[in-house]
Amino acid sequence: MSLNDILSDFVTRVRNAKMIGKANLKVRKNKVVTNVTTSLTKLGYFASFVENEHDIDIKLNLDRINGLKRISKPGRRLYYSYRILPVIRNGIGYNILSTSKGVKTNVEAKKELIGGELLFQIW
């Protein structure tokens, strides 16, 4: 099976694991997925993760994740300035952005005054 959009596969696998209550999952590895996984672990959505040669084993914090939504897709890239980032669930969730300084949350992007491609939202 060839995957063109590994980040959409990542979001779908995390969402499906949450829906069935499975705490451990395995996702394909690339640079963006590794950076996103590190950010979500710092935010407390993932308990831990282990990088292997071709994939990443993730242990989810099931109580923390309520939902994920992929925003920017290969067919339609969406870029936002730090001034106009959308608010998620009245400020409960986070926007995950790909910026010129790496993968950042909306809080980090506003603090550093940078915008970028809005990859997905998590709450």
Report the major sheet: 5 strands, antiparallel
Arithmetic mean of pLDDT: 94
Total beta strand runs:
8
Number of helices: 3
How many separate domains? 2
Roughly what fraction of the amino acids lie in strands?
25-35%
Could you say which structural class the secondary elements and strand pairing correspond to?
alpha+beta
CATH domain topology of the largest domain = Ribosomal Protein S8, Chain: A, domain 1
**Which CATH-level-2 architecture of the largest domain?**
2-Layer Sandwich
Low-confidence stretches: none
> Can you tell me the overall shape?
globular
SSE topology string: HEHEEEEEEHE
Radius of gyration: 14 Å
Please provide a written account of the structure:
By secondary structure, the protein is an alpha+beta fold. It folds into two domains: 6-60, Ribosomal Protein S8, Chain: A, domain 1; 68-122, Dna Ligase, domain 1. The chain is built from three helices and eight strands; from the N terminus they run αβαββββββαβ. Strands 4, 5, 6, 7 and 8 form a five-stranded antiparallel β-sheet that branches. It has a three-stranded antiparallel β-sheet with strand order 1-3-2, with helices on one face. The longest helix is centred in the N-terminal third of the chain and has 15 residues, at 6-20. The mean pLDDT is 94.
